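Homework help board

Subject: predicted structure for assignment chain

Our instructor gave us this sequence and asked us to write out the predicted structure in token form, then describe one feature. I got the tokens but I'm not sure how to describe them. Can anyone check?
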Amino acid sequence: MIWNESRECISRDELIDLQGRRLVKLVKHMYYGTEYYRKKMQQQGIEPGDIHGLEDLDKLPFTTREDLENFCSFDTHTADVWSECAARTICMSGLSGRDKILAAYPYGLSAGAPGICSGAEKTGAAAVPFSISNSSKLAAMMKESGVTAVMCTPAYLMRIARMAEEYGLLEQLQLKTAICSAEPWQESARKQLQTKLGIRIYDIYGLGEFAEFGTAGECRFQNGMHVQEDYYIPEVIDPRTQRAVPDGQKGELVLTSLCNERIPLIRCRTADITSISHNRCRCGRTTARLERISGRTQQQLFIRGKQVSSGQLETALMQLEDIRAVYRVSVKREHHLDTVEVLIGPDEPDGTLPADEEEAVKRRVAGAVRDIIGIMPNTIVAKQGKKRYFDGRKVTVIDKRTYN
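My token output:
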């Protein structure tokens, strides 16, 4: 199903013209309405009159996450854009107004979960908001309410599968589709979960500064994530040269938001590594497609001379599926020697790891990390007072070393 055929199947020439007009309007809006951007453009010697269309995009300066500290705003128009993007990605996965969609994300300052619910309702589907803090009752609730789809992180979908299996509910769920985002994962893990749950799982991409859930999403052919190009201009650049790379070549994803009036971001460097394809998809959509995010430009670590990505550590720890835990991996330097510490905490806000299992868990976690970094880490099980060290993600990697 295609939610908005006039935009998702627009001809490339029409799309480029639309993007160009919106870019020109956005640059004027930013230049005359935002002092920070005006100074940034003036430093580059650029004025609004220098931008005539999409062909002038590379004249504009990049935006970084550090720049975003100068902005903190939200409006109803931006909410409408995010709702539209969520509706499109929901329909891309084959869902419709007949479905019941569980939104299993944290409900806090993030606009992600409300955006999912708004997008689901836009399609006519029933939205079922569910706080991840109540996951002990999740499988039974899904059975009773007849949920047919779930939107969550890959790690949380693994938890759903475990709980359904534990309570003997796998065969009783009406689940047919899952849409996952917010965490890196491997194709092998997706295939394993698809087989276990008997469903199709789709990737979507989003950032809090853009459409948190729906900047891009997979269609039924699962051959890349379609970007909502009428709202966002994607570029993939070589992070060293800052120049565009050819289709199919990996680089850093750069996004420009064309319609977020209060958060006008031009050429925002996401630090996410992907590749792009402009070939027309078999589904009929003409929009560019992104490969699944394979890493981040800022995630490469050198530990005692060995290059390691935090994505490798995330993958290794997420594969310990039977251990219900979250992890904080800290890289430190003590007496001029690199050391690694892994803090292990329960994956439930009020939970604890069984005391009789702590040593076994520590050994398995240490072994998984050692296989990646080449040295034995120090593993610590977090007590009640240390839960503040976890930021809600399954795996957090922090480099605490200084190089003075």
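Reply (TA_rk): Your tokens look well-formed. For the description, you could write something like this. The chain has a mean pLDDT of 86. That's the kind of observation they're looking for.
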